[in-house]
User: Fold this.
Amino acid sequence: MLRSLTPVSLGVLCVLGGMASFSTADALVKALGGSLNVFEIGLFSTLFSFLPALFSKPREERWRDTFKLNRPALMILVAFCRVLSAVLITYAFVTIPLAEAYCLVFLIPVLATILSVVVLKEEVPLDRWALVVISFLGVLLVVRPGFREIELGHIAALICALAAAVSLTTIRLISGAERRVTLFALPGLLTLAANLVGVFVVGFTWPSPLLLGGLVLCGVLGGIGYLLQLKGVALAPASRVAPMQYSQIIWALLFGALFFNEVPDAVSLAGLGIIVAAGLANIFADGARTRIAGRWAEYRARRDNPSPDDFKGPGPDPV
Assistant:
C-alpha cells in the first residue's frame, strides 16, 4: 500500500507519525512526573533518544567531528537554548495540562517571526504580522492571565518557546557552516550533562522496572519522532508537512482527557482553535506567496526572452 503513495503523501504521513510519537512521549513524561523528578526523566529520556537517532547521522560525517565547530559562539548559544528548552518543557508537561503546554510551545513560530525581523533583518508582510497578533490572542484565551492562577509550568513553557525560537533563528545563521552531526549531537550531549548535574543536586531515585520501561519507551519514541520528521521533510515540501505539527493539539486533548482528567473549557478550546487557524493560515499564506512569486518570475523571464513561438500567428484553417 505504501508503494502506491506519492513521495509527498508519504512525507506527510511520516511527519504525522512523528508528531504522534512526540506526543506519546510527552504524555509519558507527564505520567512519569508523579514518581520521578524532572531531571531524572530528562536524563533517561535524552539518553535513550540517542538509540534510534543514531541512524540519522550522514555517512560522510564522523562522531568525533561533533566538537569541531566553525562558529563556536553561535553553536554554543544553540546548544544552551536547546538544553534550556528541553529541561523547561519537561517541567511544563509535568505541572500543567498538556494542551496548555502545547499552546505556549506553539508560540515558537510567532517568536521566530519577530526574531527574523530583529536579527535577520527579514521583511515580514502585514498579513503575517496580523496572524502573529491573532496567535497571541489565542494564547491569552487559553492561559487567561489575571482571570486564573498562572503556574510556574506556564512560565516554563513560555521561556521554552522563546529559547527554541532563538535556537531556530541561530541555526538559520549557521546551518551552512556546521555539520549535521554537530547540530544533533552537541545539544543532546549538553542536555544529558545538564540533567546529570540536576540529578546530583536534586537527588536520584532508581526507577522500578515499570518506570524504567516507561523511560526507555519515552526516549525511543522521541528518537523515532525525530527520524520520522527528518524523513518527512526530505520527501515533501515544508508547506505540506508544516501543518501536521498542529496534530499534536489533538493528541494533547485526547491523552489529557483519557489519562489525566484534563478537559479544557469552551474558552480554552476557542483559544486553541484560534492558534491552530492562525498557524495554518500563516503556512498556507507563505505557500501562496511562493507560488505567486514563481509565476511572476516565469512571466518576466518569458517577457524578457520571448521564444519564436510567441510571435507566430494562428495556423491555417483546417480544410
